[in-house]
């Protein structure tokens, strides 16, 4: 069985009041400029802010019919790259909606430049929500090295919006060898898990930090600082503190 899409694609599917998803077409893994025959599905989240602006999280490939549908929902204003792997179509949306703001996550600019992706980011995300959407959405940066990403919380619907932090793939939607790999990793529906690469990197950094802390008092101070950072994490991200490496919390401030 081949990979299958989450039909219908390119239509807004409401989840709750003022928040919904849009499933997109397949994309293909590209390594060293070579497109591999390994399709994966795409999805974006759309939030309608109280002021009528639309927040597009991880925009899928631009589609004119979809753009018309979104225009009827509100003003396409925020094109958000939650991590450095989800930005490829922001430029297409920005061309269609020149008044929209393209929000960069750490590493997204460099990655786009290196891959010659045409996108001009206008603002950078921060560990606190900006004025533009702080009345509707809270946010924080989940550590994880190159896999770090911004998590968003839509307050009115109590919806947490993640990107790659938790993987929960439906096995019948993907082809081999992804299916076998996913089964081995345990990151499949209905028991999605935190992305293994984040955990591995997190553990590795913890070991390094422990070695350093034995060698110097600075290490001890750092751990204390991290504990304070963890304590200040907001309520919405409490569940993530269990998974996050406390030692990394001082690195994203
Ligand atoms: Fe992803």
Bound molecules: fe (ii) ion
Strand order of the largest sheet: 1-2-3-4-5-6-7
Q: What is the CATH homologous superfamily assignment of the largest domain?
A: Ribonuclease Z/Hydroxyacylglutathione hydrolase-like
- Return Rg in Å: 19 Å
Which structural class fits the helix and strand makeup? Answer: alpha/beta
Global outline: globular
The structural domain count equals 2
**SSE order in H/E notation?**
EEEEHEHEHEEEEEHEHHH
Number of strands: 12
β content, as a range? Answer: 25-35%
Largest sheet data: 7 strands, mixed
CATH architecture of the largest domain: 4-Layer Sandwich
CATH class division of the largest domain: Alpha Beta
Low-confidence stretches: 215-253
Helix amount, in percent? Answer: 25-40%
Please name the CATH topology of the largest domain: Metallo-beta-lactamase, Chain A
Question: Can you characterise this structure?
Answer:
With about 250 residues, this protein is α/β, with parallel strands linked by helices. It folds into two domains: about 150 residues, 4-Layer Sandwich (Metallo-beta-lactamase, Chain A), CATH 3.60.15; about 60 residues, no CATH class. Helices cover about 30% and strands about 25% of the residues. It is built from seven helices and twelve strands. Strand 8 and strand 9 form a beta hairpin. Helix 5 crosses helix 6. The C terminus is likely disordered. Fe (ii) ion binds next to loops.
């Amino acid at each position: 069985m081949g990979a299958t899409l989450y039909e219908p694609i390119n239509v807004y599917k409401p989840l709750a009041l003022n928040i919904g998803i849009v499933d997109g077409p397949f994309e293909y893994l590209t390594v060293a400029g070579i497109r591999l025959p390994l399709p994966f599905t795409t999805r974006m989240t759309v939030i309608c802010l109280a002021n009528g602006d639309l927040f597009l999280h991880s925009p899928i490939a631009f589609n004119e019919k979809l753009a018309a549908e979104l225009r009827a929902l509100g003003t396409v204003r925020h094109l958000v790259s939650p991590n450095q792997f989800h930005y490829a179509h922001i430029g297409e949306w920005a061309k269609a909606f020149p008044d929209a703001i393209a929000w960069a996550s750490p590493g997204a600019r460099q990655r786009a430049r290196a891959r010659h992706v045409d996108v001009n980011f206008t603002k950078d995300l921060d560990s606190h929500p900006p004025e533009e959407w702080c009345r509707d959405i809270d946010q924080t940066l989940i550590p994880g090295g190159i896999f770090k990403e911004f998590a968003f919380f839509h307050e009115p619907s109590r919806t947490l919006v993640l990107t790659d932090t938790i993987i929960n793939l439906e096995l019948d939607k993907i082809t081999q060898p992804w299916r076998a790999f996913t089964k081995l990793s345990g990151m499949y529906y209905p028991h999605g898990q935190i992305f293994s690469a984040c955990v591995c990197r997190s553990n590795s950094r913890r070991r390094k930090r422990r070695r350093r802390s034995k060698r110097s008092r600075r290490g001890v101070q750092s751990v204390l600082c991290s504990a304070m950072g963890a304590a200040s994490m907001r309520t919405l991200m409490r569940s993530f503190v269990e998974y996050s490496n406390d030692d990394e919390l001082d690195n994203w401030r």
